Please model this.
Amino acid sequence: MILRTTPRRFVLHLTTLFLWIALVGSVTYWMLRIIAVTPPGENIDKAVRNAEVGDPSNFIRMLGTSSSKVIPSEEALNRFALKGVISGRAGAEAALIAVNNDPARTFLVGAPVADGFVLHSTTKSEVKLSKLSGGPSFMTLQMPPIEK
Model:
């Protein structure tokens, strides 16, 4: 049997083959995207990781009322003790904080520490805690001096 294909039929077969290849490639790509497993460090959304706690006093001022800054009491300052600051590769920042003379625990930026206090930001030697309820107060904890 002699197979006779005309140029028109040959182009049709070739076009169909390319369409099937494109379809299989597309389905394979999207299936791999759906079942792909990301490393645990990348699961944290960058927007959440870099989010800052807003200052409620700006909102209160926008509504036309006055707000007085709440200064944290000595009792509140003595409850927290900064033991260390941690900075990761992907920009993840954390702090080792002891609350009420308990063993120090690790808190990520944005995580609640105790009684409405949230870890706001970190630097090399200090961290800022903000209290969301009861006014826009910020508390700065500094690393204890290194003993020689």
Q: What stands out?
A: The helical segments are 7-35, 46-49, 56-62, 74-79. The two ends are 97 Å apart (CA to CA). Residues 1-36 form one domain.
